[in-house]
Write a structure and sequence with these properties.
Blueprint: E1 2-5, E2 10-12, E3 46-50, E4 56-58, H1 60-63, E5 68-76, H2 82-88, E6 102-111, H3 112-119, E7 127-136, E8 143-150, H4 151-154, E9 160-165, E10 168-169, E11 179-181, E12 194-200, H5 207-211, E13 213-214, E14 230-231, E15 238-243, E16 249-251, E17 253-262, E18 269-275, E19 283-284, E20 286-287, E21 297-305, E22 308-318, E23 343-350
Parallel strand pairs: 3-12, 16-23
Antiparallel strand pairs: 1-2, 3-4, 5-6, 6-9, 7-8, 7-12, 9-10, 9-11, 13-14, 15-17, 17-21, 18-19, 18-22, 20-21, 22-23
Cofactor: Mo-molybdopterin
Protein name: Molybdopterin-dependent oxidoreductase
InterPro entries: Ig_E-set (IPR014756), MoCF_OxRdtse_dimer (IPR005066), Mopterin_OxRdtase_euk (IPR008335), OxRdtase_Mopterin-bd_dom (IPR000572), OxRdtase_Mopterin-bd_sf (IPR036374), OxRdtase_Mopterin_BS (IPR022407)
């Protein structure tokens, strides 16, 4: 793992571990705003309250009575590839994520829609809020991590209350005993160490709901208010290089390059273009078909590289025909979120 912080633990997956369709538990990225909480699964209970007809308090045994569902889904931190934005202009106080704040797993658990149906959602409810057990000092005063999604997303069949990851019990580092999985949306909405679900008329006022918002370049994040940015939800189309890795020494001539592309929400990647001459000419990469709308897709292409210094560029298109913007400079923002600029990789080739 490429560890950025020990406490709270923040570490990204190394490129070699991202080439597989499913990421191992040991290599799955970790993004935290507080120390990992210690939870006694025996005494743990999940509260379901707010605008519901029947408030619930559920143990793990209660949850396991719901039909188990499984979804293979990619999770991605909103700050993935922030390091490219930091090269444009510094972003103080933020983790300099490379392309590895993303991983894919097979998740199993109860469908959130089934649990909400048991509680009986009232007609005035429009958002579903989640609260974890991890208390962050980043908020003032300190606050439990949380977030919310619209009711329509929360009741979609792919959204889970997961107790299993890659066929094993959910590890404490990834949210045990229970976490939310909201496929296609930023990882911050897949709240870990879940202990409360609330049906609300409006989005939650939790600090991290608006902390994860896209601010205009001119706004100071230290004084930004809730209305100054756009709250982040679905992930924008983007791609990244995995091989060769940054700093690799290459030999001129035919060379295979590869990477991943990801289109959030229920979109898929339609095409990936790769250039060996800084974007003057492009070729279509071979693109793996999507396993489902909720996972990344890997791509590869063979480029003829000349000797000397150069720059490779990759750009992806999604199923709505949205394409990545050309340069990280065009998407720079003061929190470093949602970098969906084309991927650039400096290379050096010997003759």
């Amino acid at each position: 793992m490429l560890v950025h912080q020990d406490e709270p633990y923040n570490a990204e997956t190394p490129p070699d571990a991202l080439v597989d369709r499913i990421t191992s538990l040991e290599a799955f990225y970790g993004r935290n705003h507080a120390p990992i909480p210690r939870i006694d699964s025996g005494s743990w209970r999940l509260r379901v309250d707010g605008l519901v007809g029947r408030p619930l308090e559920l143990s793990m045994d209660d949850l396991r009575r719901f039909r188990e569902r499984t979804v293979v889904a990619t999770l991605q931190c909103a700050g993935n590839r922030r390091a490219d934005l930091i090269e444009v202009r510094d972003i103080p106080g933020q983790v300099a994520w490379g392309p590895g704040a993303i991983s894919t797993a097979s998740w199993s658990g109860a469908g959130l829609a089934d649990v909400l149906a048991e509680a009986g959602i009232r007609p005035e409810a429009a958002h579903i809020a989640f609260e974890g057990a991890d208390e962050s000092q980043q908020a003032d005063p300190p606050q439990l991590f949380g977030g919310s999604v619209p009711l329509a997303k929360a009741t979609s069949s792919e959204v889970l209350l997961a107790w299993s990851m890659n066929g094993q019990a959910l590890p404490p580092a990834h949210g045990a005993p229970l976490r939310v999985i909201v496929p296609g949306w930023i990882g911050a909405r897949s709240v870990k160490w879940l202990q409360r679900i609330s049906a609300l008329a409006e989005p939650t006022d939790n600090y991290f709901q608006t902390e994860y918002s896209l601010l205009p370049p001119e706004v100071d994040p230290r004084t930004a208010g809730p209305g100054d940015g756009i709250t982040l939800g679905p992930i924008a189309i983007h791609c990244a290089f995995l091989r060769p890795c940054r700093g690799a020494r290459l030999t001129a001539g035919p060379t295979e390059v590869s990477g991943f592309a990801f289109a959030g929400d229920d979109r898929t990647v339609a095409r990936v273009d790769v250039s060996a001459d800084r974007g003057s000419t492009w070729i279509h990469a071979d693109l793996d078909p999507p396993a489902n709308p909720w996972t990344w897709q890997h791509w590869r292409a063979t480029l003829t590289l000349p000797p000397g210094e150069g720059e490779l560029v990759a750009r992806a298109w999604d199923s709505t025909a949205a394409v990545q913007t050309e340069s990280p400079a065009t998407v720079w923002n003061p929190r470093g979120y949602a970098n969906n600029a084309a991927a650039h990789l400096h290379i050096s080739c010997s003759a």
